[in-house]
Amino acid sequence: MNNNVILVSNNSPHLYDKFQKLLTEKNLINKYQLKKFNTFGLNTYTSIIKIYPDKIIYVDSLENDIEEIVNDHLINGKIVKRLLYKNEHKNYLKSGPLPIYHKQLRLVLRNSGLIDPESIESYLSREGYRALAKILNNTTQDNVIDEIKISELRGRGGAGYPTWLKWNFTKQAQSDIKYIICNADEGDPGAYMDRSVLEGDPHSVIEGMIIAAFTVNANNGFIYIRAEYPLAIKRLEKAIKDAKEYGFLGKNILGTNFSFDIEIRLGAGAFVCGEETALISSIEGNRGMPRPRPPFPSTKGLWEKPTVINNVETLANIPLIILKGGDWYNKIGTEKSKGTKVFALTGKVKNSGLVEVPMGTSLREIIYDVGGGILNDNKFKAVQTGGPSGGVIPEDKLDTPISYESLNELGSIMGSGGMIVMDHTDCMVDVSKFYLQFSVDESCGKCSPCRIGGRQMLDLLTNISEGKSDESIIEKIEAISSAMQKASLCGLGQTAPNPVISTLKYFKDEYIDHIVNKKCISGKCKSLIVFEIDKNNCIGCHLCAIKCPVNAISGGKKEIHYIDQNKCIKCGLCFDACKFNAVIKS
Amino acid sequence: MEDNNLNYIENAIFEGVEDIKLSEELMEHIEKWKDKPGNLIMILHRVQQIFGYIPLNVAVKIAKELNIHLAKIYGVITFYHFFKTEKPGRHKISICMGTACYLKGAEKISDELQELLGIEIGQTTKDGLFTLETVRCIGCCGLAPVMTIDDEVYGNLKPEDIAGIISKYTNIKTGV
Ligand SMILES: Cc1cc2nc3c(=O)[nH]c(=O)nc-3n(C[C@H](O)[C@H](O)[C@H](O)COP(=O)(O)O)c2cc1C
Ligand code: SF4
Ligand code: SF4
Ligand code: FES
User: Fold this and answer.
1) Topology of B91-174 in CATH?
2) Which ligand is nearest to the CA of B153?
3) Is the model's pTM score more than 0.80?
4) Ligand 2 site, residue A273, Cβ cutoff 6 A
5) Quick check: A557 pLDDT over 60?
């Protein structure tokens, strides 16, 4: 099998044909695999051509350029410089990891880093508030709903509910008072997409809220934001003030008879307050406990009034859809998941950071092309999406195109955008324990399946990690999971078992290893590790004994040392201290 | 709402608490929010900003100002992790226990800090210099594992770095 590959973007079929023709003519057709690749509606370049194994990327090539590429590059090995892809700094990128820019499509992050977030003029210069002007000028509320419906935008807060439907329920609800809430509580530990949008482009979220308010007849809005994000709060305050001065907020917006105002309300460090009914209870000044749905907030929300509640990223998409049209938006993404998604790519990956890609991009592209691969070139083990409500995805599923449906099928969820890469040094039992511990800490305690079930399951996992279990434990875990999923009141309890279920699904062997063989191959589960001294290597330097915090090591100078297993707390200090590899970890 | 038993206990507490005169600024803030529905959390945020925690006598004052039960205030304070009922130390050390930091060894950092300072998570050192807390992701996952001391971020930490970092703050103390 030859590994000479030419990939041509699917928005330029004529270039593909031209390649085919030339390669055939020059008798090269057997030497190269010619393929098309999907750019998912990405339209920054008219064409993209990638040549492997040279890792060369040509962009914006025209039909006549193909001949040059074939003659110079393929036949004579000379790179066609003028067509090369350039990065932000105008440097040619010829080798190394594939450049990330054309994998990313910045819609939500369109202004982040490009504008001064504290200047409304800066936002205005990038078509800011033009969507608002457009709808106030000559659009009906129904038109807006239609446009959002055509775009097929779905909520980015996790559940993926169609935004137009939500808005329509609230629009149709009979009430003099209605509210818009922006959910900026961002609770997933290890994720910061919404914070970046709010800090980088606060007006886009505010504009989205104003458009929502116009559409459903709301006159008051709230942004519920975590107190842990002081900079984002400061920028939002400034943005709201400026928008008022410019007449985009307040009474008679842009001279119309539509009035709308926004207030900021601070969260106070309770994950469950990201859940919409708990959030509402918190804005009302109470303990943030969820209540059963229905009734849904869209008909009975804040102070019992119809309320639209949307995530930050959802709202930031709105102005763009209004300006460019639902049709345009609808072309990006997969069949049922449209547009882009912002992820916070972190963990054992070379380039950590925020990534915005079209729906349908594969996990492999995100981790390897955008993220640059695994840190220290370690072996990839799994990627986790959806935080404490999500699950892990193993190597053989990495080519799955990302969508709400595909991730659900794999036993994970899209979630709000946390994406954490794990390598062979991470223990799956330990990881699921970590997430479950989070959910147990954050359970509001209102309903017993979550409060008690979560605790019991955590105990079981702890037993596994300490080697105190037998195979029957898996059945018990499954029974509790199913009870929590079915009987918990809110999403927190219903999804808390997901990290456990998905690790069990893909890494059952690792559980069995802990349960039956009492072994943790990644060495994370402390109780299963034993530190011993190798008699052949120990020279009696006594260094380990000095380091040991619990005096578990005995032996005089120049004598072979010994670790008392009953005293050892497995801190590993002796292992790090010994210069003669005489302390063995197993 | 009328609960005599509660009123009885509350009055006893009210009597046992030293009266405090709130600053004009805080009173203005309370005045501004007083008649708005859902005001309590916003008022508590300001109190904590000023005092670093919610002192009992301030809570009592707010109960009177807003004409609500003290139990309601404590119900809210204890539900939200952000609100503290005890005076924090001069420097707040927050160890990130978000997923990225956890995977990159935040526990070892946490162990080292607890060992060095001789306190557990959530406690304050006897000299009132340090309070140790955990947080969930501060958005610097690329630098994991991360901790903050007051507003300063320390990333790519190794257990052996901690003593040096802490000593910078203890030295400030002796300098004062
Ligand atoms: C436990 C829990 C935590 C949640 N946290 C958040 C959050 O931090 N941010 C968010 O936007 N939605 C969060 N949600 C989802 C919200 O309940 C709600 O579905 C969302 O804000 C709706 O907005 P969208 O339709 O724009 O996605 C959470 C849900 C649950 C059950
Ligand atoms: S599922 Fe958990 S968090 Fe949700 S209401 Fe029940 S106890 Fe509270
Ligand atoms: S692992 Fe820690 S406690 Fe155990 S012998 Fe080594 S230094 Fe002592
Ligand atoms: S997980 Fe620690 S900074 Fe994000």
Assistant:
1) Glutaredoxin (3.40.30)
2) 4
3) yes
4) no
5) yes
Question: In CATH, which of 3.20.20.140, 3.10.20.600, 1.10.155.10, 1.25.40.10 is domain A340-423?
Answer: 3.10.20.600
Chain-centroid distance, C-alpha A462: 28
- What CATH superfamily classification does A120-330 receive? NADH-ubiquinone oxidoreductase 51kDa subunit (3.40.50.11540)
- Asked if the Cβ–Cβ distance from A347 to B103 is below 8 Å, we say yes
Contact A434 B39 (CB under 8 A): no
- The closest alpha carbon to A586, from A512, A521, A510, belongs to A521
Element (H, E) at A88: none
Give the Cα separation of A179 and A212 in Å (integer): 10
Terminus-to-terminus CA distance in chain B, angstroms? 52
Distance CA A154, CA A81 (A): 42
Q: Which pLDDT does position A2 carry in this prediction?
A: 61
A5-96: CATH topology: Glutaredoxin (3.40.30)
Q: Does domain A530-585 have CATH number 3.40.718.10?
A: no
Choose the closest CB to B83 out of A268, A348, A426: A268
The span from the CA of A416 to the CA of A385, in Å, is: 9
Taking the C-alpha atoms of residue A549 and residue A329, their distance in angstroms, rounded to an integer, is 61
Query: How buried is A206 (Cβ within 10 angstroms: 0-12 exposed, 13-18 middle, 19+ buried)?
Result: buried
Q: Count the alpha carbons within 13 Å of B69 in the hemisphere toward its beta carbon.
A: 16
Give the span between the Cα atoms of A411 and A48, in whole angstroms.
Answer: 34
Instruction: Report strand pairing: A48-52 vs A5-9.
Output: antiparallel
| CA–CA separation, A190 and B98 (whole Å) | 5
Q: Are B139 and B98 in contact (CB under 8 A)?
A: no
**pLDDT, position A443:** 95
Stretch (H or E) spanning A154 = none
Band of pLDDT at residue A97, cut at 50, 70 and 90: very low
